[in-house]
Amino acid sequence: MHRVSRRRFTFTLAGVVFGAAGCSSDGGRPQGTAPPATAPPPAPTAEPTPTGLGYHPFTGGRKGLRNKVLAVKIDNTAPAHPQEGLRSADIVYVEQVEGGETRIMAIFCSRLPRRVGPVRSARISDLHLLDQFRRPALAFSGVQSKMKPLVVESDLIDVSEDNGAGGYYRHGSGRYAPYNLFGDPRSLLRQARRAGRARDIGFRFGPAPEGGRPVRQFTARWPAETITFKWSARQKRWLSYHNGKPNTAAEGGQLGGRTIVVQYVRTTRSRFHDFLGSYTPLLHTTGKGRAVVLRDGRAYDCTWSRPGRRKGTVFTTASGERMTFAPGQVWVVLVNRGRPVVP
Question: The whole model's pTM is what?
């Protein structure tokens, strides 16, 4: 594994915005006197953080600032629902896989659930995304044989079932293999002693920027799936609907995030394929492109930029300022920059 140098970043708060393709939306719109014998106490200062941001770089909160990072691959097909543990994730990435379906990579750091799953196999796009986190632990079950050398060479800590990691077990009445494999995040992280800790990956949190347009819902589309996000003013977050049905959590309630980033990327055919011969999409998450950021019942057209795989992703508003996310869980939904396509 490569040793990773720490880097400090300047704290900024601003706004960001993206454009849309392959998705649709509809509009809707907090003197006393010091004792003479003692010096006055020093003024309170913010607790220093490893990233220099003053808040957790994944959520904008104050918990888990020095925690290790765990990524978990989770199935997103109908037999895998309801998933467990996603409500505790800091970031939920939605990625296209073979056949035009999607799979989830959940990032855990500020807090850990008791159990997470169903755990499934990794994809080449995961490695490209995870480089910006610098040596995270990755939990998964299975990987295409041709991709195994890339996992070994990558800058991550392999805590997969394939690599002999403990903390996995079959669970759940009514579930069947391969949709019944779950992991214990605490156990997995105990086995990742050299895993990297929270660092700046480009997100900024703070008050909403000026502009944006009011929306009630927004739909992201892939060849074989849709996910619709509907704004709940009562819960102050976007609720998720998978193929038109409420995306419920095994722990109860409905999945969704405070901020939804719909990121438009180039989707091409990788050199990997499954046992049926279906090629794995490669999602190009470096470079530049368009996005739509949903927060507080509004949509902001933005651009995204990531100059290299070991760099974070910066989101910028139409006015050129950094886009600010609402503190809380962030979903990053990766869709093709044109129409939905099976490469």
Answer: 0.86
